[in-house]
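Sanity check

After download, print the first record. It should look like this:
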Amino acid sequence: MKMTCQRQALAAAFQTVSGIVPGKTTKTVLMNTKVEAFDGAVTLLATDGESSIRYTIPDATIETPGALLLPTSRTLTILRELQGEQVTLESLASNVRIKGERADYKLGLENPDLFPTIADFKEENYHVIDAGTLRQLIRRTIFAVDTESTRYALGGVQVELGTDKVTMAATDTRRLSVAQGKCAVHGTPAQITPAPVVPAKALAVIDRSLGDDTAQVHVAVRSNDMLLRGGLATIYTRLVEGRFPAYQDVIPTECTVSLDLPVEGFLAVVRQSQIVTNEESRGVDFEFRDGLMTLISQAPDIGESRVDLPISYDAQPLTVSLDPKFVSEFLRVLDTSKTVHVELTDGESAVVLKTDDGAVYIVMPLSRDR
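Expected structure tokens:
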């Protein structure tokens, strides 16, 4: 096999598929990326056994069709360091050659036939989502996933696909993030019950692989797995086992105080308050009183801080202690030119943040006896 393409395009493709490649595995072949050059198209294939990706390299020139295996991490490093606009990959009798403008590498040769078969998108019934919408939904939920829980369903994002609306939800039991967007259907896709839970790792790769915001993404969900086609990539993933919590039951329906805060200003004071915290004293008191929100933090051996933000507030004084990291993770994925709606009940109840486009974020308070 021999092919030539733009170095930056190939480096970007290897960077994307590297998100699937396992760092450690007993199946060492999975630490490689397979490169296929057939029928005028060059495709990178990677898998960790649970998720996989097919990524097309645009504008590649194939001199000799075929396939080869390349060590993902080392190849990515080479592509980043090479000079020049183009790079050539070639399988020789005893090694694989990577040739740039002023550098020539020869790596060990492995049999590409040992690489697992990677699923392709051949579904006729699927949901259609704009890439920009899907990207926003992923970014508004993935940070709330619990990556350390023994409850497997919390290690992913629940994806509810309707005929015209998609809802994604993630929780680690200390906070909950729910986001909604528009979708459409092609054919008659099956309705999977309960709603599937997609691994966070796969969603992170999907986020990186999506193309232009206006491009369409096709999503086909089956009983145990999901296929997605969008941009230059086709991604397959097994679904997370277990039942996702009935998150609708924990969303408060009433509050005693509601106010709108500018996202940019709110995020700025939260980040400032986070400076004087540590793992043992991570709570910050959010104090609301007449015309002012004050964030108070202190930690032994570090110090203390008070940060003010003028707000429109004329209700009874209220103080609630929150983890600033949890608050900032939601605010930083919002449009900083917008406002966020804040709903408060008392110092012992959850704080609810909402956006005009349907996102809901719930943060449980911390004990103030710290």
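If your output differs, re-run the checksum step. Summary of this record's structure: The longest helix spans residues 263-274.
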